[in-house]
UniProtKB/TrEMBL annotation:
Source organism, top-level taxon: Eukaryota
Record keywords: Signal
Entry protein name: Integrase core domain-containing protein
Phylogenetic lineage: Eukaryota, Metazoa, Cnidaria, Anthozoa, Hexacorallia
Residues in the signal sequence: 1-20
Integrase core domain span: 151-332
Database matches in InterPro entries: Integrase_dom_put, RNaseH-like_sf
PANTHER family, A to Z: CLR5 DOMAIN-CONTAINING PROTEIN (PTHR46791:SF13), EXPRESSED PROTEIN (PTHR46791)
Length: 417
């Protein structure tokens, strides 16, 4: 059931005609009818209060809890009935265990089965399946973890943390990301040939800003040169703001190791995804299939694996933003889904600290400080690869295995030229 508190906030929101910025998992759904929207939110794993909140704030659709339950029932959508076939679930888990899904715990695997496969399955069944199929992985994940100091943020968009992730850099894949301090929502997670180019990092920031039409109160980053353009843009947007932390104070420099929120999330990313990729690329090197001093092999690896890795990072972000964070002793880190905490802050008795900005200011910042990220592979190599692919009827890969097959085929064809 909905708590009295949540019902109260939904009533207040309806009375005040509040509108929210559409999150990425929502903004393509504006043409769907009410029942299709409800089905979509149901499959994303949202509970009753969250579905009602998104319908009201993002689509202007106001229905009662009773109506919602009736619509779900009439469409055969149940959380605790009509479970997916155990064989289908086991097959999907086996498939995930052959890739980076082998790093997921049962909660994350449960989230992936719901979001990516649209399965109806309980967590306990997923836990037992993983325990049977991957006992070694279960044992490794059960080891003690580091406890970090408490963290404080007033609400969504009060502070964002940005940083680069270098664990895949030895193979040419440079990751950069940002996280909202309050909701723990990932604002962007991009992979490219560099995470030290200030113009490229600024383009990631501006893409997010254009989507939200606003900037956070504060951005925190390390003192590397890659952040100078983001700092300049943020301070430009907030130079005459009357709120706290305006102007120079709106971008805070600090040591990378003390940038707590994003550093903690990098640990999650490695445990849940990139550890598998690190081992995958190490195996290629150990087998003599990759040499970082060979220009063709370097460019071929980037050409074949960059889009696959980016797609996987987007999937990781979606699953993270939709998963439920459990309660903790830190009152400033509320439990709930990052997506809900970010876009529906009223449900946790706070508000968004987003600072609205003018479109003309965004255009100025983009012209002066940004660079298009569409430079992942030199045109000459991409053209050569495309010629070979057209001649042999090859397609761009959609999985690590198909990327490896294309990589080996392209290298073989180049050697024969």
């Amino acid at each position: 059931m909905l708590s009295g508190c949540l019902l109260y906030f939904l009533v207040i929101l309806a009375m005040h005609n509040v509108h929210a910025v559409l999150p990425p998992c929502v903004d393509t759904l504006t043409r769907l009818d009410r029942n299709s929207l409800i089905e979509h939110y149901f499959h994303l794993g949202f509970d009753y209060s969250e579905i009602l909140g998104f319908l009201l704030l993002c689509h202007g659709i106001q229905i009662s809890l009773r109506q919602l339950k009736q619509i779900l029932s009439s469409n055969g959508l149940f959380r605790r009935r009509a479970y997916s076939s155990p064989r289908q679930v086991i097959t999907a888990v086996e498939r995930e265990l052959r890739g980076s899904g082998s790093l997921l715990g049962y909660r994350q695997m449960h989230q992936r089965l719901r979001c990516q496969y649209r399965f109806t399955v309980d967590r306990e069944s997923v836990r037992l399946i993983l325990q049977s199929l991957d006992p070694d992985g279960v044992e490794k994940r059960s080891r003690p973890r580091l406890r970090r100091r408490q963290y404080h943020s007033k609400g969504p968009n009060y502070i964002w943390h940005i940083d680069g992730y270098d664990k895949l850099k030895p193979y040419g894949f440079c990751v950069h990301g940002a996280i909202d301090g309050y909701s723990r929502r990932i604002m962007w997670l991009e992979v490219g040939r560099s995470n030290n180019n200030p113009r490229l990092i600024a383009s990631y920031f501006l893409d997010c800003v254009k989507e939200l039409v606003g900037v956070p109160r504060i951005i925190r980053g390390d003192q590397g040169t890659e952040n100078v353009n983001v700092a300049a843009i943020q301070r430009f947007f907030r130079y005459d703001d009357q709120a706290d932390f305006a102007g120079e104070k709106s971008f805070l420099y600090g040591r990378s190791v003390s940038n707590q929120r994003i550093e903690a999330w990098w640990g999650f990313l490695r445990r849940s995804d990139t550890e598998w990729w690190i081992n995958f690329f190490k195996d290629l090197k150990d087998q003599g299939l990759y040499n970082e001093t060979d220009l063709f092999q370097v460019e071929c690896l980037l050409f074949c694996f960059m889009p696959v890795l980016q797609d996987e990072l987007r999937r990781v972000v979606q699953e993270w933003n939709l998963h439920k964070i459990r309660p903790s002793s830190n009152e400033s880190s509320p439990p709930g889904r990052p997506e809900t905490l970010y876009f529906l802050p009223e449900l946790t008795s706070t508000s968004s600290y987003l600072n609205n900005i003018k479109a003309i200011d965004i255009d100025v910042a983009e012209d002066v400080c940004c660079e298009s990220p569409d430079t992942d592979v030199p045109d000459s190599f991409a053209e050569l690869a495309q010629i070979i692919m057209d001649e042999k009827g090859l397609e761009m890969p959609s999985s690590p295995q198909s990327a490896l097959n294309l990589y080996l085929e392209l290298l073989s064809s180049i050697e024969d030229i």
